[in-house]
Amino acid sequence: MGLLPNLLTITGLIFLTHAVYSAHEHASLYSTSHTIPSLPLDIVAETLISVLVTCAGIIASSPALKPIRWARWAGAAEREETRRRLGKGKTGRDGREPPAGNPWAWLTEERLGFWDGREKRREFADWVRGGGGI
């Protein structure tokens, strides 16, 4: 996070505050009439540009994105399922106790009638090995 992104964010927020104040003042000047006044083009432009500058400053000051490692997450979810099936304190195939925390367990394990694709694949493979008869 450098000085430039913070400067962009602060500058954008100052101009956004000024644009909001200008819009409020413009609307209050025409509050006696019964029609809704449209905002002048300079206030609209200042609002849009200040929002863009503020967004650019926030984006530039954010930390770098980390790569998504689906394989690592899926492995942790599988170890959690193995630990749940084996019982707490037991180890999996790799000899380590799997970490807790499959955040999607409520979708796959607690939902009645959930279609388990892996189990169906095993059943199909057993059916094929058995000759595939009806």
Automatic annotation (TrEMBL):
Alphabetical keyword list: Membrane, Signal, Transmembrane, Transmembrane helix
Chief site of localization: membrane
TM region(s), chain numbering: 38-60
Localization in the cell: Endomembrane system
Secretion signal, residue range per the UniProt entry: 1-22
Region (Disordered): 76-103
InterPro entries xrefs: EMC_subunit, MMgT
Membrane topology: Multi-pass membrane protein
Homology family: Belongs to the membrane magnesium transporter (TC 1.A.67) family.
The name this protein goes by in its record: Magnesium transporter
